[in-house]
Task: structure prediction
Amino acid sequence: MTGAAACLAGFEGIHVVIHGSSGCYYYPSTLIGAPLYGTFILENEVVFGSDNRLKEVIGDLSGKGGRIAVITTCVPAVMGEDISAILPGEDILLVDSPGFAGELETGYRAALLALAPKVDPKRKGVNIDGVSLSDPFFKGNIAEVTRLLRMAGVPVGTVFCRDWAEMAAHAAPLTIGTNTDFASGVGKFLGGTLGLPALRATFERLEGEFPDADASLVFDELDMQEERIVGACDRFLRRHTPPSVAIFAGAAYAGYAADMLKRYLDAEIRFVGTRNDPPAGRKTRYRQEKANDFGLVAERLRETAPDLVIGSAFEQPVCPDAAFVGIIPPLQDRVRLTYPPLAGTQGTLRFVEEILNTCMDRVKHRKAPGSPPVP
Amino acid sequence: MTSNPLPASTCRIAGCTLTGALSVVTQVTDAVTVVHGPGGCTHHNFSLLYATALDNGRPALPPLVSTGLLETDVVFGGEAALDRTLDKVMAGKPGAVFVLSTCIVETIGDDIEKVCGSKQGCPVIVVPTAGFLGGSFQAGVNNALISLAAMAGEATPNGKVNLIGEKNLEYEVEENYAEVKRLLSLLGLSVNLRFVRNITTHEIGALGSARLNVLRDPSLVPVGEYLRSRFGTPYVPGFPIGISGNSSFLEDVAHTCGIDGTESVGRERAREEKLLEKFRDMAGSGVFFSPIPPDPEGRIAAQDLARKVGLRFSDEGSPVPVPVIPPVGLSGTERLLHRWRRALFA
Result:
């Protein structure tokens, strides 16, 4: 349900209604930070039917313009009401996405399927996908990938899912991604933007598709910034051993983090735990396992005893002495006012910067008087 | 509440029973709480509880486990999933296991009592919750407190005071505790048990020892009444609200405990005057509340404070913040006055 809300609420002009209890409403409303509506059903509506309540909420919204989307939560899904029959004649986008149906990414895909985006062969530019309002990096990712596309002279098509609602029906024929866990499946996919090697490959393909495009400035930037990253990491390695790392995130971000740490720091990747199912058939060189159960997460952390944890505020306290970098919600222990990216050049620069700083802070902290020795 | 969610009546925004109960039971540090429902119900509460713990400088993960119901469990029944989860949790030998249900579980009709009744090895306590099927957030809090109180037996009186139902999701919960503790100390009283905040199952046994229960707010009166009938402990219905509620709280506590508090109350009133004097530079300034406090108690307390400081209500004035939960005691009042001065002059 939250994934479906994160998808549809990203489109301006779609009013998203969470059909369920107030408890079901609070989580998506706090996580995704976009306006949501709710039916806030009560016990009598579960017993006698929620049709009147749904009509009431839809009726209040129908004068606001735009399209209405109704996302069902667990109880309405089980009640088996035919919502399209309850709201005849209304152009309602219905998404059956109860919590028991799967993870956040499942709901996101279900919502996209219901939205049924279309490619407009005449639309110029390239779509950006992989954007989910639940991702703390989504705003930074959009800004960064847009900047790089402008540098290459390639117009931005539709942003899935952060755009005007009508743009979903007029997507460009080509797409690049910021996070494959939220792939749109719209148009021909040219590649991702997580990590400098992927970025280079994607912009090479873009040049092939757009005869007028010139990505030389992007490639220059990649060369220059990668040199800076290598320089900083090399300096770190002159005094420190590479970190041993456990990573917990969605499959795309987790794979990116592992690859970057291996590439620039020769880090020992002890464990990669994914919150969602990794894409079928994709091989990994790391010890990887789906870990969306906190008991398993804690077990793997204790077992692998990393000195660097990449993940969320959930994993951090299990290894309080380890360095920590957050890449997936919840990230609750700090004030965050800026919109950093994880994709693009700036995303990788920031990621490596965070890694190096947190690892060096850990060493300083452990060298402080009274602290245990650094292993 | 955010973003115009269109509730037709206030009962629709009275919150989730499950969240209310979890805000209580997860504060028993040696117990494990099992949420019988889909993973999402646990995930978002886990996130909320952990965020609150971080805010309060106690970065402990809530002891919370989900039965992780999937579609097949919803179709064929979730009792087997609960049974499996309880076995797994109880293998860790917790002090107690609290089992909370969710909307979907109540809808499909799982017999939670039967599954829990079959378990041995530690107390397995079913707390009545069921999201919107169970009532409101406050109903969840009250149900959890009463369920946990049932674990306590007779205890030897020790002359101390229990704090009942502190708002564990409140940002200022520790500051409010410190203020109430300070006020109690002025009467020579100390805190027996924070029921329920950061305690063990063993400590719950001391619940009946206290001479007085101080409820966090009047919505806990049913809990206060339960504890009075169970242990004979009298209660005062709420923490001190605003500047006027500060010394009157002291008077209530003194009266209920049969203590002569005249001298302490007099000294506290002098402190109140001194505090108002400190903020007298705001006198005459035009203000309006933004947002208007939804709770009448908070609105009255804020209006009272504004009048005492000499603020003038005017639509043309400066907006000053008013917390959803009214300020507690003198220290809460002082923090609010600093926020008002920032809004006026910063």
The domain at 221-367 of chain A is CATH 3.40.50.1980 (Rossmann fold). Chain A has a mean pLDDT of 92.
